[in-house]
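Retro notes (design track)

What went well: tokenization of the new backbones is finally stable.
What didn't: we kept losing track of which sequence belonged to which structure.
Fix going forward: every design gets posted as structure first, then sequence, in one message. First example under the new rule, 376 residues:
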């Protein structure tokens, strides 16, 4: 699955797990649908307070993953859909492209990624809904859902509508497609419209380019299967094809007032933790401040705010000093190579500014050789 910005350090979340017992009696529960090669590493910060139900129709892959799975993590060889019944599983040359929707090769054949979706086998498969599958394991509520099922993401959500409509599902991370011609599956706007009905709002969006075979752009990496075989995937330019969308329930909007009123302190802290994990510290701080009276009986809210506070121009400040500096009209706080302390988020910004600095030096050298644009 492609990368949405994540903060693997997550000091506030680590503090909640290691220094308090807030999640002990109500563990963080995640459903991971499409879990080939294992669950997302950013969730590991929850440690012993984590329960993950990973769905992957490849029974052999589930056996392999279960052999080394941590306590609280289960890999389940079930295929999920909008409703129960029989379906066809299209197994492809690149195993990660296997799914319930068959790619249209008259369209995909124009791209360098065409061979990934070549069907090598069609197998009948029994579908369950998410509600049916979790009932077997007595899972009353889910905190977070991740979906990566080659176009069937909306189908899985509709088969698990109970979890969206009832309780307090906090967030959804889903692979998305932008072009219906790929395999005829529902595309981004349809998934977005559906989850918005239940109070979810878009918080982050990642999209990726794929290139035409006629004159292909460079790949973003040397893509290889676990066996070392090369395959083609994302490129630095080309048409937008797919990506990932991250949704959370914004509890401070009118559409979610009822759910906010019913939210327990533990649910609020789970939400703050997920927001931090996905580089949304500002949203986590806002949530904590809005519920200080409710949360203060369980945690030290000021300590949480201090842990969420990033660096200011390379210097670590306390929460109040950070705000004072940020809104100081004479100085302010600006993103830079050392301008924050938020894991991968900061690493990406450091790379960006390093590239920008080098480009600036090259431009100055060229200007010295040839004169500045418009100069004499």
């Amino acid at each position: 699955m492609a990368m949405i910005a994540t903060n693997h350090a997550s000091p506030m979340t680590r503090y909640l797990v290691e220094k308090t017992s807030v999640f002990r009696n109500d563990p963080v529960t995640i459903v991971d649908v499409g879990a080939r090669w294992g669950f997302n590493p950013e969730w590991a910060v929850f440690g012993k307070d984590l329960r993950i139900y990973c769905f992957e129709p490849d029974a052999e892959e589930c056996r392999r993953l279960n052999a080394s799975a941590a306590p609280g993590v289960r890999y389940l060889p079930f295929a999920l859909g909008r409703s129960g019944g029989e379906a066809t599983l299209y197994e492809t040359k690149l195993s990660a492209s296997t799914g319930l929707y068959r790619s249209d090769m008259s369209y995909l054949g124009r791209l360098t990624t065409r061979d990934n979706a070549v069907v090598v086998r069609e197998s009948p498969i029994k579908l369950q809904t998410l509600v049916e599958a979790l009932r077997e394991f007595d899972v009353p509520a889910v905190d977070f859902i991740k979906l990566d099922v080659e176009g069937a993401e909306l189908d899985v959500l509709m088969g698990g509508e109970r979890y969206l409509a009832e309780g307090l599902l906090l967030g959804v991370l889903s692979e998305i497609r932008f072009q219906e011609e790929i395999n005829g599956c529902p595309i981004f706007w349809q998934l977005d419209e559906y989850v918005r009905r239940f109070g979810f709002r878009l918080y982050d969006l990642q999209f990726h380019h794929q290139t035409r075979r006629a004159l292909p752009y460079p790949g973003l990496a040397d893509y290889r299967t676990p066996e070392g075989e090369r395959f083609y995937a994302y490129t630095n330019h080309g048409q937008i094809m797919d990506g990932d969308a991250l949704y959370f329930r914004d509890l401070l909007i009118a559409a979610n007032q009822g759910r906010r009123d019913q939210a327990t302190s533990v649910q609020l802290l789970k939400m703050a933790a997920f927001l931090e994990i996905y580089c949304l510290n500002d949203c986590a701080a806002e949530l904590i401040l809005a519920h200080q009276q409710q949360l203060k009986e369980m945690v030290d809210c000021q300590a949480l705010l201090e842990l969420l506070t990033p660096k200011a121009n390379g210097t670590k400040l306390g929460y109040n000093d950070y705000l004072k500096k940020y809104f100081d009209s004479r100085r302010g706080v600006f993103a830079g190579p050392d301008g924050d302390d938020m894991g991968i988020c900061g690493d990406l910004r450091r790379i960006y500014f390093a590239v920008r600095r080098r480009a600036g030096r090259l431009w100055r050298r060229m200007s010295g050789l040839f004169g500045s644009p418009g100069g004499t």
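Added context from the reviewer: Confidence is low (pLDDT under 50) at residues 338-344, 352-376.
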